[in-house]
Write a structure and sequence with these properties.
By secondary structure, the chain is mainly alpha-helical. Helix content is 65%, strand content 0%. It has one domain: Orthogonal Bundle (Cytochrome Bc1 Complex, Chain D, domain 2), CATH 1.10.760.10. The site of heme C has 20 residues, from helix 2, helix 3 and helix 4.
Length: 106
């Protein structure tokens, strides 16, 4: 009986984290950008710890190239680069294009 309770608790925990992880894997620019906004600002105008120029209003092509670069690179234990890379790994070319367009229009 006790084992059953523990199993159900564990299952609930895994299901919850699975759903949570899936939520972060959205390909919609608005959803993806929520992750970026933590550092770059909701309106894309933060300087991300003073280390990046604001993203809002940048050239689409430049943004597309940077995002593609984050996706293609394997940053091992490289702080923010690794975080950005993880946030865009699941995007395909069209998703990246859409995200770049979204950011350039912020
Ligand atoms: C953990 C904080 C953090 C998150 C989350 C984050 N970034 Fe960044 N980003 C930075 C920092 C810091 C830099 C500057 C990196 C450097 O050059 O050292 C940067 C640089 C960039 C640059 C290059 C800017 C330049 O100055 O050339 C782009 C483009 C960018 N981020 C896009 C994104 C996108 C798109 C996302 C979401 C998918 C994202 N970032 C998520 C912190 C973050």
């Amino acid at each position: 009986m006790k084992v059953k309770v523990i199993l159900i608790t564990l299952l609930t925990f895994f299901l919850a984290s699975y759903l949570n992880a899936r939520g972060n894997l959205s390909t919609k620019p608005v959803e993806v950008f929520k992750g970026c906004a933590k550092c770059h600002g909701k309106d894309g105008r933060n300087e991300a710890y003073g280390r990046a120029e604001p993203l809002a209003g940048r050239d689409i092509e430049e943004l597309r190239e940077s995002i593609q670069f984050f996706k293609d690179s394997t940053f091992e234990r490289k702080g923010v680069m690794l975080i950005m890379s993880r946030q865009v790994k699941h995007l395909n070319e069209q998703d990246i294009e859409n995200l770049a367009e979204y950011i350039s229009k912020l």
